[in-house]
Amino acid sequence: MNLKNYYEQLPAVTAPKSLFIAKVAKRCNVNEATARLWIKGKTKPGNPEYFDILAEETGISKENLFEK
């Protein structure tokens, strides 16, 4: 499982997905658009600490967060 798969498996109701994006953005001190780009697999974080935060939030290993 990667970050995009994790996000897609969140309940279809908008609140859990929106809350997840907001939480990731806040913890990484980035805007929600940036967090959304990571989650959609369009970009990757430049700061290695953000990989740790994403891994902690999702339970996905850092190595698998962005695998295809």
> Given the C-alpha coordinates, what overall shape results?
globular
Number of helices: 4
Give the low-pLDDT segments. Answer: none
What is the residue-averaged pLDDT? 92
How are helices and strands ordered from N to C?
HHHH
Structural class: mainly alpha
Total separate domains: 1
Biggest sheet character? none
Question: What's the end-to-end separation, in Å?
Answer: 9 Å
Can you count the beta strands?
A: 0
Which strand-content bin applies to the residues?
under 5%
| Cα Rg | 11 Å
Helical proportion, percent range = 55-70%
Word description of this protein:
It is a single chain. By secondary structure, the chain is mostly helical. It has one domain. Helices cover 59% and strands 0% of the residues. The protein has helices at residues 3-8, 14-28, 32-39, 48-58. Helix 2 (14-28) packs across helix 3. The longest helix has 15 residues, at 14-28. It is globular. It starts with a helix and ends in a 10-residue tail after the last helix. The model has no long low-confidence stretch (mean pLDDT 92).
How does the SSE layout of this entry go?
Elements: H1 3-8, H2 14-28, H3 32-39, H4 48-58
Helix pairs in contact: 2-3
Give me a quick take on this structure.
The protein is an all-alpha fold and 68 residues long. The chain has four helices and no strands. The protein has one domain (3-64).
Offer a few descriptive terms.
mainly alpha; globular; 68 residues; single chain
